[in-house]
Amino acid sequence: MTAYNKLSVEELRALREELLKGFEEVKGKGLNLNMARGKPSPAQLDLTLDMLNVVNPETVMKGEDGMDFRNYGIMDGIKEARELVAEMMGVSYENVIVFGNASLPVMYDTISRSMTHGVCGSTPWCKLDKVKWLCPAPGYDRHFAITEHFGIEMITIPMKADGPDMDLVEELVSKDASIKGIWCVPKYSNPLGTSYSDEVVKRMANLKPAAEDFRIFWDNAYAVHHLYDDDRDELLEILSECEKAGNPDMVYEFCSTSKISFAGAGIAAMISSKKNLDFARKSITIQTIGYDKLNQLRHVLYFKNAAGIEAHMKKHAASLRPKFEAVLESFDKELEGLEIGTWTKPKGGYFISFNTLEGCAKAVVEKCKEAGMVLTGAGATFPYHKDPQDSNIRIAPSFPSPEEMKTATEVFILCVKLVSVEKLLENK
Amino acid sequence: MTAYNKLSVEELRALREELLKGFEEVKGKGLNLNMARGKPSPAQLDLTLDMLNVVNPETVMKGEDGMDFRNYGIMDGIKEARELVAEMMGVSYENVIVFGNASLPVMYDTISRSMTHGVCGSTPWCKLDKVKWLCPAPGYDRHFAITEHFGIEMITIPMKADGPDMDLVEELVSKDASIKGIWCVPKYSNPLGTSYSDEVVKRMANLKPAAEDFRIFWDNAYAVHHLYDDDRDELLEILSECEKAGNPDMVYEFCSTSKISFAGAGIAAMISSKKNLDFARKSITIQTIGYDKLNQLRHVLYFKNAAGIEAHMKKHAASLRPKFEAVLESFDKELEGLEIGTWTKPKGGYFISFNTLEGCAKAVVEKCKEAGMVLTGAGATFPYHKDPQDSNIRIAPSFPSPEEMKTATEVFILCVKLVSVEKLLENK
User: Fold this and answer.
1) B262 in contact with A at a CB cutoff of 8 Å?
2) Cα–Cα distance measured from residue B365 to residue B360, given in angstroms and rounded to the nearest whole number
3) 3-state secondary structure of A164
4) In terms of Cα–Cα distance, which of B21, B36, B29 is closest to B395?
5) B258 to chain A: which residues are within 8 Å by CB?
6) B152-161 long-range CB contacts below 8 Å, 24 or more apart?
7) Inter-chain contact A264–B70, Cβ cutoff 8 Å?
8) How far apart are CA B91 and CA B96, in angstroms?
9) B374 — phi, psi (to 5°)?
């Protein structure tokens, strides 16, 4: 196919007419599509339905020590759930605290606690003139929303093919003591779908931050969320890398079963050094008399161990894979060679990331909306919703049905073409 | 019976010998008792076992609007759960947000949010030189632990028979703008078991605080926790009283099903004005993508409505009542007229409050421990664990079995007598 930028003005005009005709047709259909939501489909949620049966009136709801899971107590989560998470994440259960139904509140609380109580003895961040944060982008909008909510100044770090730009991260972190953290989605990242290389993980673990209370927020949300059995990204285990590097307390890792069991009724965990967890416990024992241990038990009895989770994740993959592949095949077929966009081809996670020509993302999202399709807002994947290139769009294939996904991809491609042609004509 | 203070030194010495003999006998038994834990007994938790069956793979897990309760979303909690709580608490569901498994984190988060973000536009409390709090005492130790954790200066307010000393509350609140809140357990209060009179509730609602961001933290933890069908305390509904008084935004009410369903796996709620809830939502939508809606649904399907909760609470009462009565009957029989202690006779809630002679509470707790029985630490019911009279002891009859409760009460009475005699001899 000929690249659009090689077309003459006349050719572009003719193409625009044709595309506009197609666009008006699509508009006439009154579609109601959504590729914005990074959440599991009803079919995926059906996969875990039997979990609802495993804790019933006949179930033994006691720990080895006789503690009643129905009652108050067991602040760290039940040992069986800590062991399940530990095996899944390749760490020791002593480094795990299991919380409530999602990891986002755990991350929020960790930052909130640092604001009011500091980090392991440091000055509470709310008492400092300035707190800054590194935000590899495109990244997860809800991460950026947390740091923004607390008035933390966010610094955008470009993402490369194998993770954040570590030259920049190392330089900034080592010279500026007001930088207190960095958001990372190290595996099948949101929205790029790429994973950090061994080198990036090692460089991350070996950071020499100017701030003693600098922490890596390692949101390993898609740790076991592979699309393929035989072609997977492998991620170095960060806790042990930090230990080896002499930085045992530099990382908080977060994970959950939100996209393993139920998005609204999973279990979440924080994984960190004893020192960090002990400091967190000082607040947690004031904040709660224990999280929901019956739901923790549900997960333990249903999945049993990491192998059980692994087997379960293959069912999710079977549901997600065709949708990812349908999008990517259409992109290949319809957009390859046109030089009006690039996209990622993830082996796991929940997103495909699409980059339009510079200055086109907002217009594409707007056009799609006109055609009856909601996309994640352009810019959402950057701090303060500001994409400097106005080019990144996050595509979430998980929620729609395969049929909806097919139509949605067609609409998306049409809008990308139309907006690109208009942009090129503008610049001629 | 003769009051101990009327006995001669010789009589007291003889009595001490006799009590010491009894005490040594008890010690020899190697008891392992606990009257410290304000948590439901296993028999009470058994009452709700069938709730574990009501959400199963066949259950419709969707709202009227088609939202899937298994997935992300519905930040306010499912409407059905908000309605259940609203009916139970006598408010409108629009004033209710349903959260996760317990109300303590909701209270903690509300104070934490005020520290970092202020209250409806006020200066964040962490930016103020001084934040103070009114603490009616004896009160709930975990309340005081939260305010202490955030470095808030606690001022003890004496409790009267019908609630806090309102003369003092009114005076302090109206003249000191650094006073930002007050802890209240208005019904069957922890640990007194008494309820606020209509006059106290009205005076509370009519406060004229110097601080615009002053809030009443109304922890209505025992709202439906009656011991008797025909002899109950009634509490005025605070939200509408505040509205009537022209203070619609002055109160946050909290409640949960921790002592209705499962202590570790209930649902919790905050009840407040639209303005307060909207301000809270600004943080909550950053903090979470929704609480566990399947557990909310469990509660809705199991209890159905306020009448369902009412019927269920009668089963709890049947389990708790004999234990409360056994303690109180023993006190009446063994201690009446001795003038070495006073105690409350609650019609609901989880606690009996005992006041020893001045300066004896710590010694009684210590003696009980020596005899193999754990009591709530003396002073725990006061800010900073400092009981100015050293006389208040919280007794929690709920957890032990009736047999254990009988033995525990005997041990307690013996220790009170022994410590009192020693105190009287000291003073002779």
Assistant:
1) yes
2) 9
3) strand
4) B36
5) 72
6) B152/B111, B152/B125, B152/B180, B154/B383, B154/B384, B155/B179, B155/B383, B156/B382, B156/B383, B156/B388, B157/B182, B159/B189, B159/B192, B159/B194, B161/B194
7) yes
8) 8
9) -90, 130
In-domain check, residue A124: yes
Query: By three-state DSSP, how is residue A327 classified?
Result: helix
A150: contact with B, CB 8 A cutoff: yes
A contact test, residue of B39, B44, B47, B292 with most A CBs within 10 A: B292
- Looking at residue A307, what is its pLDDT? 98
Chain A residue with the nearest C-alpha to that of B103: A288
DSSP three-state, residue A396: coil
Q: Residue B210 belongs to a domain with what CATH number?
A: 3.40.640.10
d(CA A108, CA B288) in angstroms, rounded, equals: 8
Same domain for B143 and B244? yes
Q: Which residue type is seen at B8? A: S
Which structural domain range is residue A72 located in? 61-304
For every residue of A22-81, DSSP letters joined together read HHHHHHHTT--EE----S--HHHHHTTGGGGGSS-TTS--B-TT--BTTSS--TT--HHH
Angle between helices B306-335 and B79-89 (to 10 degrees): 40
Q: What is the pLDDT of residue B401?
A: 92
Residues B395 and B331 in one domain: yes
Per-residue tokens: A236? 């170095």
In a domain, B292, yes or no: yes
Residues B194 and B325 in one domain: no
Judgement on whether residues B295 and B323 belong to the same structural domain of the protein: no
Q: Pick from A286, A304, A322: which residue ends a domain? A: A304
Contact status, residue A267 vs residue A299, Cβ threshold 8 Å:
yes
Number of Cβ pairs < 8 A linking chain A and chain B: 161
DSSP strands (E only) in B275-321? none
User: pLDDT tens-digit profile of A359-409?
Assistant: 999 999 999 999 999 999 999 999 999 999 999 999 999 999 989 999 999
How buried is residue B307: exposed, middle or buried, by Cβ count under 10 Å (0-12/13-18/19+)?
exposed
Indicate the residue type of A171: E
- Taking only the tens place, the pLDDT of each residue in B103-114 is 999 999 999 999
**Total domains, chain A:** 2
pLDDT at res. A184: 98
Between chains, do A39 and B288 touch, taking CB under 8 Å as contact?
no
Residue B316 and residue B298 share a domain? no
**Segment A43-54, tens digit of pLDDT:** 999 999 999 999
- Per-residue pLDDT, B428: 83
Kindly identify which residue of chain B lies nearest to residue A102, measuring between CA atoms: B288
Going from the C-alpha of B81 to that of each of A67, B289, B309, the distances in angstroms are 29, 17, 13
Is B60 at the interface with chain A, CB within 8 A? Answer: no
B279 lies within 8 A of chain A by CB: no
B196 & B133 share domain? yes
The number of beta carbons lying within 10 Å of the beta carbon of residue A336 is 10
**Distance, C-alpha B140 to centroid of its chain:** 5
CB atoms within 10 A of CB B30: 8
Region of residue A296 (left: phi > 0; alpha: psi -120 to 50; beta: else) = alpha
Share of chain B above pLDDT 70, in %: 100
Same domain, A79 and A20: no
Q: List the 69-108 stretch of A: residues with Cβ below 8 A of B.
A: 69-74, 100-102, 104-105, 108
Quote the minimal CA–CA distance from B422 to chain A in Å.
37
Residue B64: predicted pLDDT = 86
* The last residue of a domain, from among B277, B304, B331: B304
Residues of B in contact with A146 (CB under 8 A): 286-287
DSSP B174: H
Query: Given an 8 Å threshold on Cβ–Cβ distance, is A292 in contact with B294?
Result: no
Local confidence band at A3 (pLDDT 50, 70, 90 cut-offs): very high
Element (H, E) at A374: strand A373-374
List for chain A the helix, strand, coil content (%; round to 5): 45, 15, 40
